[in-house]
Design brief:
The protein has 207 residues and is mainly beta. Strands 2, 3, 5, 7, 10, 13, 15, 17, 18, 20 and 21 form an 11-stranded parallel beta sheet that branches. The C terminus is likely disordered.
């Protein structure tokens, strides 16, 4: 269940030219829904600007989107959350080869009870903003994901690793980590301007 959704279809179909409140984000409050907002089959020339103040499982769930600009926020620091979601932002595929592709994510994810951002199936996407103070990890990427860019992504004070990188060809540019950075056995991961405190670590080939 979800409070607000844009659904192109479970197996086919795409919605184009969606403009959801750019520059004037509404606050979606869904304490009894699985997700605050749900997107599936969202296509080019679309812009989403929204905040979420409560959801049971995931604040924002994206299942297949192409060339969409997302500006999403959920924060215990400056919002009163009616229900703390487990995951802030979840990116999944709709079907085979229907990954979240070529999208831009400007994120504020602060205080999810689990992982902040989970990129289960994302490719050629750019992530900026912050994912911090979450009960799990800051940014998690699975082996299905590839060629994503983490640009000025400020991840700190997460209970788990700030970055758990299991994708292929991930590029980090001027990212911040205070809890350590972890990647999987996909070694083509590049670190440029990565900042880690003396209590953090960068591990390539970790769990």
């Amino acid at each position: 269940s979800y409070a607000v959704g844009f659904d192109g279809g479970a197996s086919s179909g795409t919605i184009y030219d969606v403009r959801f409140c750019p520059g004037n984000p509404p606050t979606i409050d869904a304490p009894s829904c699985t997700s605050g907002m749900f997107f599936r089959g969202l296509g080019q020339n679309s812009v989403i600007d929204a905040e979420c103040s409560g959801a049971l499982t995931t604040a924002f769930l994206v299942n297949f989107a192409v060339c969409v600009d997302f500006k999403l926020a959920i924060s215990q620091n400056w919002m009163t959350l009616t229900h703390v979601p487990v995951v802030g932002v979840q990116l999944d595929a709709r079907g085979v080869a229907e990954l979240v592709s070529d999208c831009k994510f400007d994120l504020i994810v602060e205080g999810a009870s689990g992982d902040g951002v989970v990129a289960t199936a994302a490719q050629h996407c750019t992530f900026t903003g912050t994912s911090e103070g979450n009960g799990g990890r800051g940014y998690v990427e699975s082996g299905t994901s590839q060629s994503n860019v983490l640009l000025n992504l400020d991840n700190e004070s997460n209970t788990g690793a700030d970055f758990a990188l299991g994708g292929f060809g991930t590029l980090l540019l001027s990212t911040l980590s205070t809890s350590g950075t972890v990647s999987s056995q996909n070694y083509r991961i590049h670190y440029t301007g990565l900042q880690v405190t003396n209590t953090g670590n960068v591990e390539v080939g970790g769990a």
